[in-house]
Amino acid sequence: MNIVFFLSAFLFFIGANSSQFPIDEATVAEIQHAFSQNKLTSRELLDHYLNKIDFLNPVLKSVLEVNPDARAQAEAADRERELAGGKALGELHGIPVLLKDSIGTKDRLNTTAGSFALLGSVVPRDAKVVHRLRNAGAVILGKTSLTEWYGSRSMKIPHGWCARGGQALNPYGKGGDPCGSSSGSAISVAANMAAVSLGTETDGSILCPADYNSVVGIKPTVGLTSRAGVIPISPRQDTIGPICRTVSDAVYVLDAIVGFDPMDSEATKVGSQFIPSGGYKQFLKRDGLTGKRLGIVRHPFSDLYANESTAIQSFEHHVKLLRKSGATIVDNLQISNVAAILNPYESGELVAMIAEFKLTINDYLKNLIQSPVRSLADIIAFNNNHPELENMKEYGQDAFLLSEQTEGIGEAEKAAISMMENLSRHGFEEMMKTYNLDAMVTLGTGAETVLAIGGYPAISVPAGYEGNGEPFGILFSGLKGTEPKLIEIAYAYEQATMVRRPPPLLSDLSSL
C-alpha cells in the first residue's frame, strides 16, 4: 500500500478526533459511557468515522457510499440525549452503523448488490432490519462493498470485488483476501471506519469475512432476522446478522434486529419463537463456558491449516483454555457424510440455489418502485450492454446464465432440497444430539456450508494471527435457536483470550 498515503493519513489522524475520548477500538458500551460523561457526541463520533473513510477507503475500498443524512441523524441523537439529561437511550442510540449494499434503505442511499445494474433503483421501504436499527436510534452511516451479487453472477469473481467499488482489500495484508461476500462490512469495522455493521449470509458470507478480517460475526438462525427488503438468493439459507469488533457489540446489534415480520412471515414466525424474554445481552457472561459440552471437530476443517503451524498450535491452546474455563470437551468428533455436505454439486446446494435465485430476484425486482432492471434476464442484458462497467471480459456471468435457464422448483430442485435436509439431519444434527453438545467448535470457518444448508447459527471470534499477520478465527456453532448458549460460549472465550488486535496499517509507520 502507498506509504505516502498512510503517512498523510497518520498525520491527519493525530488531530482528527476533537474529543478527548479514544474512539478507535472503542466498544459500544465504552462509547455510550463517553456520551453520558460528555466526553463525546454522536456528531464527533460520526465525523471521526467519516474522516477515517475519506483516508482509508481509497485503498481498502470497503465503503461504497456514505449517507448524506448521517450528520443530521447524529445531531438529532445528541439533542435527544441532552433532553434525556445525558442518559443512554439504548445501546445503539447515536451509534453509526454501516450496512451491506444489499440491505435496502428508503433514503438517498443506493441498494445495488455492488452492481451498476441497480444503480438508481428505488426500494419501497426500509428493510425491516434497518427499520429496527432506526427505532433503536442508530445512525445509518452508509453502504459497504460486497462480492458483487454475492458472487452469484460468476464463479470467476474474486472475494470482495464489485463493479461499483472495485477490489476491496483485507486490512491485515497487502492484497489479502477479505473473503466474501460481506467483505466491506468486515473490513470497515476491522479498520475502525465504524463500530458496527450488518452483513448477510447464504453460505459463509458473514462468518468467513469475520474470520479473515479479525472481527466477530454472528450468523443467526435462519428466520431470527427478517430478510424483507434485502436482495435475496435463497429463502432457505439467507440470514442477516452483525459484524463487529466484539461479541458484546454484535449482541447489541442482534437484539435490535431480531423479531417477527409479516413481510417475511413464514421464516420469522418460526424464528421469533427462539427469541428469549429479555433479549440476548443477558447471556454476555464471563463464566459462560462453565458446564458447557463442546464438540471439537478437526477433520476436514483443521486440514485447511496444515501448513500454518501457528493456527494449529493456537487452536490446541484454545481447546485447553475452553476446558480450563469449565467446559467439557468431547474431542475428535466427525460429521457423517461431511465430504458430500461440502460439495455443492453432491449435496444439492448448487441445484437448489440457482433456481431459488432466479425466482427470488425476479420477485424482488418487480417490487421496486423504480429500477433499470426488472428481472434476471434484464440484468443479464444490462451486463452484455455495459461490458466495460461490469468487467464482463474478465469475469463474465456464467452463474447468472445457469440460473436464467431454470424453471422454478421442479423435481430436481425438490430432490436437492430433500438431500440437504437428510444430510443435515443425519450429519450435524445427529452429532450434536448424540453427544448432547451445546456447540461444535472448529478452527476457521470451513464448516460454514454445514451450517448454511441447515439454517443453523454460529459465531466467529478472532483466535490469532499467523507469522505474516494474517488473522484466523474460532467458530462456535449450534442447533437452531441456540444463540443464547453460543453467546455465552463466545463471550466467555473472547474475554478469556482478548486476541483481537487492530490492523497494522498506521503502526507500520513507526518503523520508518
From TrEMBL:
Signal sequence, renumbered to the chain: 1-18
Keywords of this entry: Signal
Domain Amidase: 44-486
InterPro entries: Amidase_dom, AS_sf
Keyword Transport: no
Protein name: Amidase C869.01
Species: Cucurbita maxima (Pumpkin)
Gene (name only): LOC111486234
